[in-house]
Each structure stands twice: as structure tokens, then as C-alpha cells.
Amino acid sequence: MVCGFCLYISGYILLTLMAVDKLPRGICGFEEIEENYSEGTPNAPCKAAVYISVTIVGLGVGIVKSNIAPFGAEQLKTADPQKTRSFFNWFYWCINLGSLVGVGVITFIEQDNPGICSNGFFCGYLIASVCLLLALILFMILVPCYHIVAPEGSVIGNILKIVWEALSAQIRHWRQGRANIVANPLHIEPRFLDRAKIRFGGSFHESAVDDVRSLGKLLNVFTALLPYWLVYFQMETSFQAQGLHMRFDWSDSNATNQSYAKDLNMENATHSRRFS
Q1: Residues of 182-216 as b/e, b for ≥16 C-beta within 10 angstroms?
Q2: pLDDT for 22-46, tens place per residue?
Q3: What residue intervals traverse the membrane (predicted)?
Q4: Residue 197's beta-bridge partner residues?
């Protein structure tokens, strides 16, 4: 989690420097910087800086968010489902309150409003960087108070071993065919993962195999959620780009629409004369 926080903060520091054109020259070549200036966009960062900063932020977010929830639940030191449910409820509320501040307040500051900040994106990224740095400092100060559970083996390694053993047993079953199957009406044909269980000739406990099967069901749920999240995260990318081209002046909307309709009619008339 400390490594994730460091990556998280490093990515936002790059974004903050990018907002004021203070990036190290090693990230952006002089030729690309000169090209941006020649195009009349002196504040346009190079592509390498954008990809590097976004990738670092993504890695930091993934590491922190995937560990902070189970780490917080471990601090309860109890198996009481009511307390665990209460923790995750408060955790979810904190996430949404933070999102409200980030999407609402910081986004408002980034609009370059007079009297708030002369460089909105610099102030917005700076606020986020300072908040993350304070979070890391607070997290490090409280390290002696945490209940840290020592890791026990590799979950991914056990999953791969179970799947491999089940696959090997299934291949052996296909090669032998049904000649060795006892003609017993009570005979139960094991499913794919069940072949890794001890009672079917495998070497893994039934609970471990059942956990892997449950994980497969969860992966199906997460796969079905991919389209939803793809659309949801457009709020931070393409929807903002579309918003830059919207007309917000309601007083001139009718005149603009009439002018657009007039131009469209003229263009259609020109095409008609060409075809005729």
C-alpha cells in the first residue's frame, strides 16, 4: 500500500508539473516541445508525458484500492458479520464523499474561474497531490497501531495448481475413455474442478476447490460489468471532450440554430445544382 501511494503521488506530481509546463526535459524531447509551440499550443504536453503520468496513476490506484478494503477489514479482528458490514458501509460512504469533492469542488476550481485560481488545472492537481501526500503521512504514522496479518502462501499459485491438476485428470479421463468406468447406477461423474479433490483422486481439499469454483462465478459477474464501467468512465474522458464543444449561451441559441439551418440549406442547394 505504501508503494501504491508513492506511485499514486508521483503520477499526480507529473500532472501538476504538466499543468505549468515544468516537466523534466528528459520526458519530452525538445523537438516535440518546439512542435507544440509552433502549432500555437504552448501548454500542450507531449504524448509521452501524458501516457507516463496516466499509467503511473492507474498503477497506484489499482494497488491502493485493491488492498485498502481488505486491510481495513482486518483491523476489526473479529468475525462478526454485522461489524464487517458496518465497516464496508462507512468505507463506501467515504469513497462517495471523496468522489463528490473531487468531481464537484475540484472540477469547479479547474474551470479557471476568476478569483479562485489563475491556473485551474494546476490548482486542482496540486490539491489532489497534497491530499494524497497527507493520506500517506497519516497512514505511515499509524503503522504501529495496525493489525498486520502475515501472508500465507500464494492464492494465485494454489488456483493455478488446482486448475492444472483438474486439467491433467480430465485429459487422462478422455484418453482412457469410458472403459474403466464402473457400471454402477450410483456412480457420480465428477465435474472439471472436482477431479482435483481428494475423494476423486486429487490432492486438494474440497473447500479449496469449491473456492476456486466460486471465484470463476465471480469472474463471470465482473466480466458482465465491463460494459457498464466502460460507459461510466467516459465521464472523465470523452464526455469532457464533447462538453468542450457544447454551446452554453442560451440567449443566442435560437440565432445560432437558425444560422446553422440556413448554412445547411445553402449546402444542400449547392449539392443539388452540382448533381443537376
Answers
A1: eeeeeeeebeebbbbbeebebebeeebbeebeeee
A2: 877 676 655 444 555 555 554 556 7
A3: 90-109, 121-143
A4: 204
170-217 pLDDT per residue, tens: 887 777 765 455 444 555 677 778 888 887 777 888 888 888 888 888
Percent of the chain scoring above 90 in pLDDT: 20
The band of 274, judged by pLDDT with boundaries at 50, 70 and 90, is: very low
The whole-chain average pLDDT of the chain stands at 78
Alpha-helix residue ranges (DSSP H) falling in the chain:
2-19, 30-38, 47-74, 81-100, 107-109, 120-141, 155-176, 206-232, 238-243, 253-275
Please state, in angstroms and as integers, the Cα–Cα distance from residue 266 to each residue in 256, 257, 263, 271, 273, following that order. Answer: 15, 14, 5, 9, 11
Say whether 20 sits in a helix, a strand or coil.
Answer: coil
DSSP 118-183: SSHHHHHHHHHHHHHHHHHHHHHHTGGG--PPPP-S-HHHHHHHHHHHHHHHHHHHHHHTTTTS--
The whole-angstrom separation of Cα 69 and Cα 74 is: 9
* Alpha carbons 174 and 88: distance in angstroms, whole number: 46
The per-residue pLDDT for 258 is: 55
Q: CA 208 to CA 165: how far, in whole Å?
A: 13
pTM: 0.62
Q: Give the DSSP letter of residue 244.
A: T
111 contacts 244 by C-beta, under 8 angstroms? no
β-bridge mates for residue 204, sequence order = 197
CA–CA gap between residue 147 and residue 136 (Å, rounded): 17
Residue 197, helix vs strand vs coil: strand
